[in-house]
Amino acid sequence: QAQKIPDADFRGLLGALASQALMGLGMHQDPSGKGVMVDLEGSKFVIDLIGVVEDKTKGNLSEEEAAELKQLQSELQNRFVQIAQLVAAQAQGGAPTDTPEATPTIIDPTA
Question: What is the pTM for the complete model shown?
Fold first, then answer.
């Protein structure tokens, strides 16, 4: 049975952008299976694009859409900070091991 493609609407746009940002924040393992791929620059770019969407759609969104956009942006920014801190700690040789996110090695393809 084929998967149904979501509607091409505002929620679908946000979902596509969020998915792209999350992929860059280590939501997928690298092909070797030894860690997760992290692309902080790419994720920051997508999070910034979500900010552009917020600015350009101000006044044209329903209250629900505006709230979803604001929540998504906040959650992605928080996740970005967490992952950036883990990358920095790993680069210094001291990545914490008490958090589930820190268990796999972080592989930064831009490093």
Answer: 0.77
Q: Max alpha carbon distance in the chain (Å)?
A: 48
Q: What value does the CA radius of gyration of the chain take, rounded to a whole number of Å?
A: 16
Write the pLDDT tens digit of every residue in 30-55. 777 778 889 999 999 999 999 999 99
β-pair type (105-107, 35-38): parallel
Residue 74 CA from chain centroid, whole number: 11
Give the pLDDT confidence of 4-25 residue by residue, as tens digits: 887 899 999 999 999 999 999 9
What are the angstrom distances between the C-alpha of 96 and each of 61, 85, 92, 100?
41, 10, 11, 10
